[in-house]
Write a structure and sequence with these properties.
This protein is an alpha/beta fold. It is 47% helix and 16% strand. Strands 3, 4, 5, 6, 7, 8, 9, 10 and 11 form a nine-stranded mixed sheet that branches. The protein has a two-stranded parallel sheet with strand order 1-2.
């Protein structure tokens, strides 16, 4: 009797989960709403009121307008569908949702793409325009092909979400890399980010993002390496006292679309979707730039955070401290990849680190 009861409970729970999950998008391939329109589902981790939340809403409006109502969008914000970038990437590979925005390391977890390590190389990029120049290049399109071929994921450009900046509790902005000595800084679980903090004399920690606010507040970690505007969006500015915008590397997301959803579209809607995504990327990039500038002001003027932006001269010791990290990881990016990117950017290593 107990075994039968246990089996019955398990069955009821499984059915409940299935029905609940199907209400959140289900298999996105070929999915359509009751009026015959194609349903495009987006899942992301940020709040609806964040810059990302607002421009994803804008994407839904653009798709519906440009398709004459044939594509309608459902958005699941704030981590309601997944709790991490890696989980989001798995959702789009499975076709459970139509699109997710995720960093390159999450996509590399689906299919090993060593070339994506290029975007974490310290001080390779001087500004956001250079990052976009590479993201939009034929090089990046070639790097993304294994995602389409082996993971069923189609990538569109990318969005810079800000420089990865060092926020610290109980300390002024960094005057030199050695100011991080003895400090525990939370990073993403990537070799390059952890290596960056180590190169700057600190100790890297991989606290779960959802626990980061409390970890800084309680002193479990001394600070964080994350995108500038996230210090406002996720309220880290309430628990850090300084922000060092060292510009070693940026945080960005690639909009990754389920190939099964895209392939199920009729040819005319594929054209509409591609054109709309390209138009939207321009808009979203502008919104992220505005959000980043606004975040700097809010941190400084409203949240009483000491924000430090650096001149090229002030960045020189930080570049010197990370030169070995750059050299040691060139080969890991793939044969000739760093040289190819430098050629696209029309610069040399000497331009970055000096002779």
């Amino acid at each position: 009797m107990k075994k039968k009861l246990s089996l019955l409970v398990a069955l009821v729970m499984a059915l409940g989960i299935t029905f609940a999950f199907s209400g959140c998008g289900g298999d996105s391939s070929g999915e359509s709403s009751g009026d015959g329109a194609q349903t495009f589902t987006i899942a992301h981790l940020q709040t609806e009121n964040s810059a990302a939340g607002q421009y994803f809403t804008k994407l839904g409006e653009m798709l519906e307008e440009n398709s004459g109502g044939k594509i309608k969008t459902e958005i699941y914000a704030g981590g309601t569908m997944a709790g991490s970038d890696t989980e989001l990437a798995e959702l789009v590979r499975a076709g459970t949702v139509s699109m997710v925005p995720v960093p390159t390391h999450a996509l590399s977890a689906l299919v090993d793409i060593p070339e994506y390590r290029i975007f974490e190389m310290p001080y390779l990029f001087t500004n956001w325009d250079e990052i976009y120049k590479v993201l939009d290049s034929d090089l990046a399109k070639d790097w993304a092909k294994p995602l389409a071929d082996n993971a069923g994921v189609k990538v569109y450009g990318g969005l810079v979400k800000g420089w990865l900046s060092v926020g610290l509790k109980g300390q002024d902005p960094l005057a030199a890399p050695t100011d991080l000595k003895g400090k525990k800084v939370r990073t993403m679980a990537t070799d390059m980010q952890q290596g960056l903090i180590k190169a700057l004399s600190g100790s890297a920690s991989t606290v779960a993002y959802g626990e980061l606010y409390t970890a800084i507040q309680q002193g479990t970690v001394d600070g964080s390496l994350t995108a500038t505007n996230l210090y406002v969006a996720d309220r880290f500015g309430e628990v850090v006292d300084s922000l060092s915008v060292i510009r070693a590397t940026a945080h960005f997301h690639l909009p990754a679309v389920s190939a099964s959803w895209y392939d199920a579209l009729p040819d005319d809607l594929k054209t509409v979707f591609d054109e709309t995504m390209n138009e939207w990327l321009t808009y979203a990039r502008e919104q992220e730039q505005i959000a980043d500038e606004d975040a700097m002001k809010e941190l400084s003027e409203k949240m009483n955070v000491k924000v430090k932006e650096y001149t090229d001269e002030e960045l020189a010791p930080f570049k010197a401290a990370t030169k070995d990290l750059f050299e040691k990881n060139k080969a890991a990016c793939g044969d000739g990849v760093v040289d190819g990117v430098l050629q696209v950017l029309n610069k040399t290593e000497a331009d970055i680190f000096g002779k």
